[in-house]
Amino acid sequence: MHKHYNDGPAAVKQAREAEANKQVERMTSMMVWMTYGWIIAAGVFLRAAGWM
């Protein structure tokens, strides 16, 4: 009985941590894509400016 009670909060905590990790991964991937976008945009802009 006591062990079963301890399992509950642990599972809930694990689920919350997994959800938090998912959100962090989502934010990180968005930041990575934004960074890639800025790098590509800067490269295209500099290339166009160089050609002009």
Tell me the Rg in angstroms.
23 Å
Taken from the alpha-carbon principal axes, the silhouette is rod-shaped
> How much of the residues is beta strand, in percent?
under 5%
Low-confidence stretches: none
Tell me the span between the first and last alpha carbons: 77 Å
**How many distinct folded domains?**
1
Total number of β-strand segments? 0
Major sheet, described briefly?
none
Helix tally?
1
Overall structural class, as computed from helix and strand content, comes to mainly alpha
- Order of SSEs: H
The percent range for helix content is: over 70%
| Arithmetic mean pLDDT | 87
What does this protein look like?
By secondary structure, this protein is mainly alpha-helical. It has one helix at 2-51. It has one domain (1-52). The chain has one helix and no strands. It starts with a helix and ends with a helix. The model has no long low-confidence stretch (mean pLDDT 87).
